[in-house]
Design goal:
The complex is a heterodimer of chains A (about 170) and B (about 240). Chain A is mostly helical. Helices cover about 75% and strands about 0% of the residues of chain A. Chain A contains 9 helices and no strands. Chain A has helices at about 5-10, 10-25, 25-40, 55-70, 80-85, 95-110, 115-125, 130-135, 140-165. In chain A, helix 2 (about 10-25) packs across helix 3 and helix 8 crosses helix 9 (about 140-165). Chain A is globular, with a radius of gyration of 16 Å. Residues about 75-90 of chain A have low confidence and may be disordered. By secondary structure, chain B is an alpha+beta fold. Chain B contains 8 helices and 8 strands, in the order αααααββαβββββαβα. Chain B has helices at about 5-10, 20-30, 30-50, 60-90, 95-115, 135, 205-210, 220-230, and strands at about 125-130, 130, 145, 150-155, 160-170, 175-180, 185-190, 215. In chain B, helix 4 (about 60-90) packs across helix 5 (about 95-115). The longest helix of chain B has 28 residues, at about 60-90. The radius of gyration of chain B is 27 Å and the shape is elongated. The relative contact order of chain B is 0.11. Residues about 75-125 and about 195-200 of chain B have low confidence and may be disordered. The chains are: A mainly alpha (about 170), B alpha+beta (about 240). At the A-B interface, helix 1, helix 2, helix 3, helix 6 and helix 7 of A face helix 1, helix 3, helix 4 and helix 7 of B.
């Protein structure tokens, strides 16, 4: 096994969070991670940098996600709470209120346009800098900032609406 | 979208400097709307991060686990085959023609067994040399040595299954990762030289370290419970 393979496997927890914020459910997230992993492992010899492998993996995942969403009709934004609750096995289970808040947040992210969703996943979920996100998405830093500002505003409005309707 | 939106993003990203930063900080002290907007933006960031971390506690899909484990195993398998192929390429050109394809296939199969002695053992047992690692994996707690074998840790995967790391002190120092699938064990990765085959230093141990980082270590008590559940009919 190559060193790249070790790095790829080591990045899986971050890839899963990234995929989860894009898809909103664990099953689709793991499918996306698996597709990304298979592509990365197949092409690992093409990766020659010695630094952090994550940006390369995020690029693969971004392309896989875009290909997937364009190939298939969009799934409904609604995600069943029961699915998430039955899958949680951590030592500290989220409280019902926290679980509901997470569902609301994921539903709100799911309602964002694809371009904003990717920025949210890279910057807010993985903590990438604006410059890194710009490099991964091949867009100017200014575009990252404006998309993120729009995404934040939209999430804020969406979550307020959900609170009102609840 | 307003200029203030962009200023807030720049500020949160730490991209403001010098006079621009000073002016923003001054405004923040007195402008309640700005204070509110910053608080909202930070709250959204925290909420998104928390929601995404929910998946950390969700089990991985079986197919994803299989892909991860295959990543650790397949290069070693193909390395054995490559060694056989290169050995055959070293023969005089007349030999393959004399032996014929069927005989070559038999030699290749025999060579793989020599390179990987456990390759033809029953699926339910994992052998390294003559040692049945899987039988010990069902019974031997971490930290307790049995001959040249010792388990150094037990881990729970996202799907609830258990993996165990072992070390062999002889004939070569080797480390391996073995994972339970139902009643059977699978050798996921192994460091060192499998019976003389070439193995690049560190590659398999990198995989083991990386894979373990995706799992939760079992406490001694949890490991005892696990071994108790495995130890009904199995003895090494």
């Amino acid at each position: 096994m190559t060193n790249q393979t070790g790095q790829i496997i080591g990045a899986i927890p971050r890839l899963r969070r990234f995929a989860y914020s894009l898809t909103g459910n664990t099953s689709d997230a793991d499918d996306l991670v698996q597709a990304c992993l298979e592509k990365a492992l197949k092409n690992r010899t093409k990766y020659t940098d010695t630094g952090d492998i994550a940006p390369w993996l995020f690029k693969i995942m971004k392309n896989t996600f875009i290909d997937h969403t364009r190939a298939q009709a969009r799934r409904p934004a609604f995600v069943e709470l029961e699915t998430s609750a039955s899958q949680a096995t951590a030592d500290r289970q989220p409280t019902p209120e926290e679980a509901l808040a997470h569902r609301d947040t994921l539903n709100a992210i799911d309602g964002l346009p694809e371009e904003q969703k990717l920025i949210v996943a890279l910057v807010l979920v993985d903590g990438r800098s604006y410059q890194e996100a710009a490099d991964i998405l091949r867009i100017p830093v200014g575009t990252v900032m404006s998309r993120l500002a729009r995404a934040r505003r939209r999430l804020q409005e969406e979550l307020q609406d959900q609170r009102r309707s609840a | 979208m307003t200029e203030l939106d962009i200023s807030i993003e720049k500020y949160l990203a730490g991209m403001m400097q010098g006079e621009e930063l000073q002016q923003f900080e001054n405004r923040r002290q007195i402008d309640e709307t700005l204070q509110h907007r910053l608080a909202q933006a930070e709250a959204i960031s925290a909420r998104v991060r928390a929601a995404a971390r929910e998946i950390d506690s969700a089990p991985m899909s079986q197919s994803l686990l299989a892909t991860i484990e295959a990543a650790g195993k397949s290069p070693q398998n193909s390395r054995g085959l490559r060694n056989v192929q290169s050995w055959m390429q070293g023969l005089p050109p007349i030999v393959p023609r004399l032996l014929g394809p069927v005989a070559l296939a038999c030699i290749a199969a025999a060579a793989i067994v020599v390179l990987r002695p456990h390759a033809l053992q029953p699926d339910s047992s994992v052998y390294v040399g003559s040692m049945n690692i899987s039988a010990f994996a069902d019974t031997l707690p971490a930290g307790v040595a049995a001959a040249n074998l010792q388990f150094t840790g037990s881990y729970r995967r996202g799907d609830g299954g258990v993996c165990r790391v072992f070390e062999l002190s002889a004939p070569n120092k080797q480390q391996g990762l073995i994972c339970a699938r139902g009643d059977a064990w699978t050798l996921v990765a192994m460091t060192g030289k499998p019976a003389g085959a070439y193995s690049p230093a560190g590659a398999q141990s990198d995989f083991i370290d990386a894979y373990l980082a995706t799992m939760a270590p079992l406490s001694s008590a949890e490991e005892r419970v696990f071994l108790g559940s495995r130890n009904v009919n199995t003895q090494p």
